[in-house]
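Case study 2.
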Amino acid sequence: WTESFDNQTPQSAIQYEVYVNGVLDHVITGDDQTIVYGAINGDNTFTLIAIDSAGNRSTPVSTTVVLILC
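Prediction:
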């Protein structure tokens, strides 16, 4: 995803809440963009919310992908 930018919070301090299929999975801080969870052989909706150091939350951004185990 594209990193969030804030004129008060350095990129290394911005947090991202990562939701997988509507459930909070984990929180990433900074520029780590790795998501390793998802249901195999089905649709997975990943939603991200950026949070700056003041607690301001971005509008959620989602994408749905299908993971298929061959």
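DSSP finds no helices and four strands in the chain.
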